[in-house]
Fold each of these.
Amino acid sequence: MAMKRKNLPDFATEMFENEIFGQIRYVRPDPEFDPWFVAADVCKVLGLSNTTMAVKQLDDDEKMTVILIDNRSKNGVTNTLSSNEGSSNAISRGWIEL
């Protein structure tokens, strides 16, 4: 199910940390749904420099663009998020540099 919300200022960005993948920021807009990962972080883990081109490969229900509030500066920053499924698909497809 695609999330339709475009602005998530009430949700703190959390950090997924893994020995292999490093750090990937994520938000959980609804506790009943899987987390949404910051696409730039997923691309960094996969060694991709062009997040825009990589995100274009995702289905519409696997991505959304939101404004996340940076907890330190309190400024809104536009980020593209990838659903848990979209991130998993990206890894299994082995997103390639375009």
Amino acid sequence: MKNSFNTLNAAAAKLKSITHSKFDAAVNTGDVASVERFFKLFPLLGIKEEGLTKFAKWQSAQVIQIYHILTNISYTYKYIIYLHIAAVESEINTRPEL
């Protein structure tokens, strides 16, 4: 009986380890579907908090990435206006505030 209990605990530990590594691999490769799929396994394995922490870190990184993209678009737009300021001034008869 004790051997069965040890085997079951070892299997549970291995499943947790596999879930962690597969989740991390999905994050590293940008596989959103796999990230979501492996995230759902954490509560089933009794490690809900670990899953929430990993998922929150991943989502935070996604938001930061989107922020950087939008910032770059904004700077690019301002740079284009700066390059063509003379044409813009002649069209609207005023200097836009940058």
Amino acid sequence: MQKASNYNYLSRSKCYEAAGVDDREYFFEIKKSMKSIGFKESDENKICILLCSILELGNIEFDDSVHKENESKPCEIKNKKIMEKVAKNLQIEEPEL
């Protein structure tokens, strides 16, 4: 995972810290809570992977120059490395995304 400022979904507000809030502490509190209600560590990891993948998907940029109105040509993805990374993290084939 990267810094919050590297993710479009997290960087729009330009607020990365809140006074009196320790994100690291809250993260471990959430993990502890998941464990207490019966989540397996593998499930916790899957949730983290899914959340990271969602953040990565928010950084995808599209090129619509090939798309014309009333045509079936889709937009193209400019930064395909992100798609490759997300597909790998989710253990699926890229076209499935």
Amino acid sequence: MVDTKLNTTEFNILVTGFEKELTKANKSDSHIIEHTSQTKEFLSYMEEHNINYVKLIDQALADDYFVYLQQRQNQRAGGTLEEATISRHKNTIRKFWK
């Protein structure tokens, strides 16, 4: 898991709100940490591509992010991310958008 710092105030507020929703839904600490980390990584990717407002994120950008995940190095095990890991990222981002 990547510990990501976000530069955009809007993104930080959204992540904090998402974390509160997960807590309110009685999700486990590990679940909250994983989902928050994955959401930050997604939003950090957007920042790196000069997207600093959530309203500018469209399906094409999200698809680009998922392609990036398929190529991203697995920081723990080497190689690339497993398909199951990418699927968890996708599910997290879907939950975040709701």
